[in-house]
Amino acid sequence: MSGAPWYFDCDTGIDDALTLGLLVAEGADLKGIGSVSGNLSAAGGARNTLDLMALMGRPDVPVAVGAHDPIGGVFGGGAEFVHGANGIGEVELPHVGEPVAESAAAMLVRLAHEHPGTLRVLAVGPLTNLALALELEPELPSLVADVVIMGGAALVPGNVSAVAEANIWNDPIAAQAVFDAAWPVTMVGLDVTMLARFEESHRTELAAGGAAPAALAAMLDVYFQYYTPILGRPSCALHDPLAAAIALGVVVPTLAPVAPVEVDTTDGPGRGQTLVDLRGRFVGYPAQPDVRHTVPLEIAEGFGDRLLESLLRLP
Ligand code: BDR
Ligand code: CA
Q1: Rounded to two decimals, what is the model's pTM?
Q2: Considering 92, 101, 174, 185, which has the largest number of Cβ atoms within 10 A of its Cβ?
Q3: What residue spans define the domains of the chain?
Q4: Would you say the CB of residue 9 lies under 6 angstroms from ligand 1?
């Protein structure tokens, strides 16, 4: 568990919902949560976040609605075929609370000033809010301890195109701004998140837990339907939860080189690709003191079991 203050940015989303569960179960000191359009609209993501946080016993954490449209573009409509029309697998939760008045970007800037040098940022949706916050406060990188994102792919295929991962593809310009900024960024991409899995046995055990675990298990029906043909058996990838676990230190990658990352911001076939310079591979990734990007490439097996153990602690 990390005692640091956290800002969490998400597009809630079934695997985002599991991540809220992990953060709550692990006792992360959440100072605020921002939503962004991705899996569904930013407004819908904030609604899901509020309802889930109430279900998990944390209605006190402020939730801000973030950017609806990507930088320089228009929101394309979400990923209903992955997460269901309401983003959480058609599970209906009681509506609890309302978002705060400030934007997600303004919330991030405020929290960075309130916790200078210690605020940790975890972002598991498109990076629009982070890019907007960098515009609002150019000193932001010096105020934030570090940024961990779920996004990108270094040595493996993409999931929305041959080369692009969804969060980066949804707002490549914002992603490039986040990689350009002078803060440490850990890119938890498909290289490792596709290795992190929930199997049918995990879902069954989760369904037998309390109200929050049972609701999360019900959401997984839709997510499993999407992933079963991709993975070859009833199961799903645990993208966002793995990013949170790495940020929290619950999972320590077994290989995570420091390597510069650039994003393809064109509208061609490479749109949204993360270009990770891994040329140090054959000499053991020598230290690169001026590079701020870390890219986990390998993890040990067993994250599904560890996530289940945490989620079953929820009410
Ligand atoms: C990412 O895209 C979204 O659908 C998931 O929530 C995750 O953040 C995986 O590519
Ligand atoms: Ca997400």
Answers
A1: 0.98
A2: 174
A3: 5-311
A4: no
Residue 275 CB: number of other CB atoms within 10 A? Answer: 14
3-state secondary structure of 33: strand
Q: What is the pLDDT of residues 211-234, one digit of tens each?
A: 999 999 999 999 999 999 999 999
Q: Which residues are paired to 32 by β-bridges? A: 7
SS3 of residue 188 by DSSP: strand
167 vs 115: CA distance, rounded Å: 27
Q: Which residues surround ligand 2, an ion (CB under 5 A)?
A: 11, 13, 16, 124-125, 240
Describe the chain by its helix, strand, coil percentages, rounded to 5.
40, 15, 45
Interval 4-36: pLDDT, tens: 999 999 999 999 999 999 999 999 999 999 999
63-64 and 119-123 as β-strands: parallel, antiparallel, unpaired? unpaired
What residue ranges of the chain have pLDDT lower than 50? 1-2
Per the rule left: phi > 0, alpha: psi between -120 and 50, beta: everything else, 306 is alpha
pLDDT of residue 1: 41
Atom of ligand 1 nearest to the CA of 11: 6
Q: Is 13 in the pocket of ligand 1 (CB under 6 A)?
A: yes
* Residue 148: strand pairing partners: 122, 186
166 lines ligand 1 (CB under 6 A): yes
Q: What is the whole-number distance in angstroms between the Cα of residue 136 and the centre of ligand 2?
A: 24
Instruction: Please state, as a whole number, how many other Cβ atoms lie within 10 Å of the Cβ of residue 4.
Output: 16
